[in-house]
Amino acid sequence: MVEKKCRICYIGASASKPLFHPCKCSGDLKYIHLACLLARLRTTMNLDCEVCSHTFEFVYEMPEIVTKLRILCGFISLLYVVADYLFRKYWYVPDLFVYSTFLFVGFYVIVEMIPRFGPTKRPISYRMPKNAEGVSAL
């Protein structure tokens, strides 16, 4: 029996690096590691297989930090509306606290999100489609 190896690094399947085939290739070129596939896609910036021209199916998943930041931004927006109301009604609001909070959150969003959603189209994370067959290590 022929041992199944990755077509890029020529290493077999392991528990930490399983092999799968996300395209229509067959034979020795059928299997690939996820890390090898993503590295190749980052260098070529092409979502098509170089052998069979099949377009890879990616399922983009939103990072958990984005969901948390949406909740945080909603809370801070509510805080700003309340602070604005109190300022207009009573002329007393600790402006330094409100504006420093906005500055901190804005800076955090910029620093955290720009590297993740850069100007290039790169897969954030990959989940195998239901039709891709995985190969487990022996």
Task: Provide a descriptive summary of the structure in words.
- The structure is a single chain.
- With 138 residues, the protein is mainly α.
- It folds into two domains: 1-59 and 127-137, Zinc/RING finger domain, C3HC4 (zinc finger) (Herpes Virus-1, 2-Layer Sandwich); 64-117.
- The protein contains three helices and three strands, in the order E-E-H-H-H-E.
- It has helices spanning 34-44, 64-90, 95-113, and strands at residues 19-21, 32-33, 133-135.
- It has a three-stranded antiparallel β-sheet with strand order 2-1-3.
- Helix 2 (64-90) packs antiparallel against helix 3 (95-113).
- It is rod-shaped, with a radius of gyration of 24 Å.
- It starts with 18 loop residues before the first strand and ends with a strand.
- GO terms for molecular function: ubiquitin protein ligase activity; zinc ion binding.
- Keywords: Membrane, Metal-binding, Transferase, Transmembrane, Transmembrane helix, Ubl conjugation pathway, Zinc, Zinc-finger.
- This is RING-type E3 ubiquitin transferase.
Reconstruct the topology from this structure.
Elements: E1 19-21, E2 32-33, H1 34-44, H2 64-90, H3 95-113, E3 133-135
Antiparallel strand pairs: 1-2, 1-3
Helix pairs in contact: 2-3
Features:
138 residues
Task: Give a brief description.
The chain is built from three helices and three strands, in the order ββαααβ. The chain is mainly alpha-helical.
Q: Which range best describes the helical content: under 10%, 10-25%, 25-40%, 40-55%, 55-70% or over 70%?
A: 40-55%
Mean pLDDT: 74
CATH topology of the largest domain, which one?
Herpes Virus-1
The fraction of residues assigned to DSSP E strands is 5-15%
Taking the sheet with the most strands, its summary is: 3 strands, antiparallel
- Tell me the total number of β-strands: 3
Organism: Steinernema carpocapsae
Membrane topology: Multi-pass membrane protein
InterPro entries: Znf_RING-CH (IPR011016), Znf_RING/FYVE/PHD (IPR013083)
Keywords: Membrane, Metal-binding, Transferase, Transmembrane, Transmembrane helix, Ubl conjugation pathway, Zinc, Zinc-finger
